[in-house]
Amino acid sequence: MSDLAHLDAVTALRAFRSLQLSPVELLDAVTAQAERVNGDRETGVNAFTETFAGEARALAEKAATAYLNAARDGTPTAPLLGVPVATKEKHTLAGRRIEQGLAAHAGRISGADHPVVERVRQAGGVVHARTTSPEFSCATVTHSPMWGVTRNPWNLSATPGGSSGGAGAALAAGMTTLATASDIAGSTRVPAAFTGTVGYKAPYGRIPGLLPLSADWYRGDGPMGRTVADTALLAAVLSGRHPADHASWGPHGVPVELPEDPVAAVRGVRVGLSVRLGDFAVDAEVADATLDVAARLEQAGATVVPVDLPWTPARVMRTVFAHFGQILGPAMERECGDVASLAPYAQRFIADARRAAQRDGLVESLALDAALQGELATAMAEVDVLLCPTNAVTALAADGDHLDGPNVGDRHLDHYWEGHLTSPFNVANRCPVLAVPSGAAGNGVPTGVQVVGHPLDEAGVFRVGAAVEALVPRARWPLASDGDAPSLRADRTPSR
């Protein structure tokens, strides 16, 4: 097995069970890769807030012994036994710091594991590192005064996205095998697209969260991986009812069944196609990659149906910020201490949310949500899934505050959040959404598509996502363990 650092989890587990590979070997590979490529907080990938080398190796050694025993006497093994997992810093670990990039939280210690961490550990996963995010996970880039700049392994001048940018960067760079993420406006899917990885936004409540903010119906915690199968595996481990989250639902540990022949499985599936989700400006390279995915699905036997949506960026922004003005914005103000001490992007978010709350109250916010949800339901009435881009732009600068929107073609965006087509599906948060790679732009940064399902139809998005993965050629992973250490690239500097 070449380049163990980029080995997928499903293959690794198969090799563990057959004793062809030890969990210690895999952990050593990703640890060595992280030491080689992570670099410093200003110019490197910089995807981890902290690592647990000693604790993780002890767990890997224990897993290796368990596989030896299982091979001898047939005892079953846990579903993630021995697999390295990096957890997003906001996912609390008992006895460890929980700071969320905020100076006001410096030194704060968690008293308990987050439900997703608890389930990773129960499943035998080896938590070996924690991943970076922007302050309070409120941006689609990943940098903060506390943790520095996290960069995209495919092009270090570009962001890996946010807020789960550290997770996407670590996966793409071979610094972990699986990662946890979260999503309130695209924070799993945006970095998945920018890093060529796979991210899943489950229906609201399918994966338990941590109260009180898990009660926010735009939110969701979830999995990221390098393949659809890996992401489905981690989703099964994380999903299901949990006593700490009364909104959680459904069975725990039951995987979505992926077809043996994913290309054949999309024959007859009706795929709705919307490149612009109404009137979003979309970069030509992103649009072409999305159309290419649709053409490949059609050639495989799917029926591709153009879908019209009456959405404008201004209306979507009004809808989501009306919501944020009621919950997330006030929560940030309460938690952050001195607003003036925050990163500029966090100050901008709080100011936007405050203005939105003055314009639209809670009842108006609910009406705005209901209108978008109804229009999506109407648009998808005759299709099985909706296909659209994840990001409208090909990249954003890694260290930018993005207080102004970028240019897309000859159109200037009012807000950089308009560069992502993700937040409408947090408004319609009962819909599962799988983000999968669609190709790469000329700057080397990957592009991605979203596969949006009907409410609670998880199997449908994984079926189509697996077909997209099988049909779209994938480039060799960046920063392979037998290559050179990374350095900043000057070609095609991303938008600021």
Automatic annotation (TrEMBL):
Family matches, as InterPro entries: Amidase (IPR000120), Amidase_dom (IPR023631), AS_sf (IPR036928)
Protein name per Swiss-Prot or TrEMBL: Amidase
Residue span, Amidase domain: 43-461
Family per similarity comment: Belongs to the amidase family.
Lineage start: Bacteria, Bacillati, Actinomycetota, Actinomycetes, Kitasatosporales
Membrane spanning stretches: none
SUPFAM superfamilies tied to this protein: Amidase signature (AS) enzymes (SSF75304)
Short name of any one Pfam family annotated for the protein: Amidase
